[in-house]
Design brief:
The structure is a homodimer. In chain A, helix 3 crosses helix 10. Chain A is of the alpha/beta class. In chain A, 55% of the residues are buried.
């Protein structure tokens, strides 16, 4: 028997045929469209599902269930996409729409929640009881596992740690608040911080790196810092400081076994985890008496979404 | 049958004989001492327990269990006071010590957790499923109820929302970090903010209020603001802004049904809840689509500790 996991993104909708052990044995991907009443996201999800079944040379009788990871606010109890910014959607009863065609359990959840669950079941979170998963990407997302279950808050609207203010009155955030963690710890924030530092230091190697890449990216400061550029190192240190402030906040609130970092920036590996683990050990509340918290890089990379969505099926059947 | 609830504080240890419906029918209080190997906190807890039994004209055969609310870090699973600042204590196996004398279930938990549970079972939190309770006192404490159960984090070391940084690099906090919520939203923080404003405005009514009271207190700015003093109003507005920043953070993370405010400052009632509810409605993530969150004053006042400690007994027997 197999699971189908689907990872909905702003650019593409990726599906995978997943075994019980978390191996992806077949894949199918379609480009994300602009959806309206005539052609809805459910139509593309059907293309992905049918494509995955065909690629795996199998049919619905071999499928335990279908799981979908979706950006934005998702009502997982009712199977509704409440709203999403990046792919403009509002109140889409996507589970009911798919159930008309597929007579298997269908689940949907927020994409960061899915990634957290994927890491918990198949990745770096395996063996822990409580984890906090943080994606450092275009935005800052979070997924929280307590006692082996996704913690979602009322009507699945919680776990939005990226919108925790860490700098009162600071940088404006898309959510309407000022000083959100996301406005300091996302890739977009790092790019802003990198550009500001480059403007002040025309001799920084970051200019060379940006020219070579054709743009300022989330890598610019990290690469230049590794080459010994002092201004770049300052950008990296300050950026990691901001990540750490949010991580220690979450540590004090949840005191999980481990915090896992995913998203584009997590590719920096030990450049992130070494200073962040040090900060965690020093600053988490009552460090002398209370249990320590591991800071680790998530391990599933691009497949976290598909695997996490597939893991939704058992996560829900358990309760 | 009765419960015994004990509220350990820096000044006194208060005990109550509590009915199933949360009525306190007898009380006994002793002064908090400095404890050492010869005279431990368990000795004073015994005085309180025996005093409560005597005051209630009853004995242990009528007691379902004993609950204790203790400031600081408490290992509730093992029944150990891990450490406490205000009453200097380290690694005291207080439950085992009491069990030698009382053959009934004995539970201990952090005082803010107990107050949260008390409000949930007997007070303003009745009827909700998930609540966050915040005490605005000398410090800022928090207690979190998820699905009707205390959420404590690993080894009961979580729920320290007062040490969430809301101003990166801001005011120093006792915990070693800078910019903690506690350093902006506690009574001590309000007094600091009040004094700073008074220094800048010698004509403010706050000087008159402080002289009348003999000191600058948590009430100074609130009282002067009600008399129309503009500088005092600015102090109050800014202080409420800081409280609100932390509350909206907790709303985005937990998305509970309600947030309850306790502690000394909560006596300001609607002066707090009206602006904070407004801020919550406007700023909680995805307010347009997501469920609203009530901001309310906790209702049990000084008895929250005793009642919450008593409520520990059933909370634990349930699981």
């Amino acid at each position: 028997m197999y699971y189908i996991g689907i990872d909905v993104g702003g650019m593409s909708i990726k599906g995978g045929l997943v075994t019980e052990n978390g191996a992806i044995v077949a894949r199918h991907t379609v480009e994300t469209q602009r959806y309206d009443e005539n052609y809805g996201i459910a139509d593309d999800l059907r293309k992905v599902i049918d494509g995955v079944l065909a690629a795996g040379n199998t049919d619905l009788s071999q499928i335990v269930g279908i799981g979908i990871g979706q950006p934005g606010s998702v009502d997982s109890e009712r199977g509704i996409i409440r709203y999403s910014n990046n792919i403009p959607l509002e109140n889409i009863p996507v589970v009911a729409q798919l159930k008309q065609y597929y007579d298997v359990p269908v689940y949907i959840n927020n994409d960061a929640n899915c990634a957290a669950l994927g890491e918990y079941v198949f990745g770096a979170g395996k063996g822990y009881r409580d984890i906090v998963f943080v994606t450092l990407g275009t935005g800052v997302g979070s997924g929280i596992i307590i006692d082996g279950k996704l913690f979602e808050g009322r009507e699945c609207a919680g776990a939005e740690a990226g919108h925790m203010v860490i700098v009162c009155g600071g940088e404006p955030c898309n959510c309407g608040r000022r000083g959100c963690w996301e406005a300091y710890a996302s890739v977009s924030a790092l790019i802003r911080q990198t550009k500001a530092a480059m403007e002040k230091d025309p001799s920084s190697l970051m200019h060379e790196e940006a020219a070579a890449e054709g743009k300022v990216s989330g890598k610019t400061a990290f690469v230049a810092a590794k080459r010994g550029d002092r201004t770049a190192q300052e950008v990296v240190d300050k950026y990691i400081y901001y990540i750490g402030e949010g991580l220690v906040n979450l540590a004090d609130i949840f005191r999980p076994d481990a915090i896992l970092l995913g998203g584009a920036i997590s590719k920096e590996g030990e450049s992130l985890t070494v200073p962040l683990q040090k900060k965690m050990n020093a600053e988490a509340f009552g460090s002398k008496f209370n249990p320590g918290i591991a800071v680790k890089i998530a391990s599933l990379r691009n497949d976290a979404g598909i695997l996490g969505a597939a893991a939704l099926i058992n996560a829900y059947q358990r309760s």
